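Question (not urgent): is this output format expected?
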Amino acid sequence: MLRSLLPSGILKASIDRVPLNKITEIRLRVGRQLCVKDASNKHLLNVTVTEEDVKHVIRVATKNSLYAYQDEIKCGFISYNGIRIGLVGTVVTDGNKIITIKDYSSLVIRVPHEIIGIANRFNNVLNNLQNTLIIAPPYGGKTTLIRDIARVLSGKYDVLIIDERQEIYNDTFTFGPNVDVISGAPKELVTEGIIRAISAEVVILDELIPSSDNSVIERLIGAGIKVYATLHGNGTDFTNESYNRLINLFDVAIILGNKPTVGSIKSVVRLK
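Got this back:
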């Protein structure tokens, strides 16, 4: 995926420092050093990122059609074959609405990884099929874990992945035979169809947003569907009412951290 996305000079410098299969993130900042991350370290390389490097990535990711990707761009990212590219630049607004982002000064390229077996650490939660929320800070291993949970559960149950940002599923990753995927659509727009027509036993979601996604989770769980989802945070102690309402919908919370390595288990909390 990275081979087709990155300019040749950026790609060579990156994999000279970190093996391709170990890269978790690449940051391109115009006029600054190239930054490459693996699971444990951040590497600043002796390569200065140019404006053309950034434009190259944008051209490839959008297939030379920025217009076709405006809905994603307004949300601050572009998806490319499972890779999420965060966009930093000049935000164009109209009142309280973001119209687009232009003049990109930085790109944050998050590279998805499949680590088969990491869900086995939570066999008790999976075997009992409990509504489970994975909580971790950014770069904490949430998506990698929930991807492997989907792999395990889709071997036995009918699992539906709502892959809103197209990060959980792609054809190169391993899943069981009982998996279905809805990609690129907001959760709230597809929930009714899931309940009425798809008859999923388990729904997998990534990066919940309290308040806006609370009703989605309530409807899914209320329909008898088991939900496994992720949330940004450091634990279950929130002062925000919307967060607390969301967390209290689940049976179990798995708390992950990014120290000493990405995906380190901090605790497993029974909520009910």
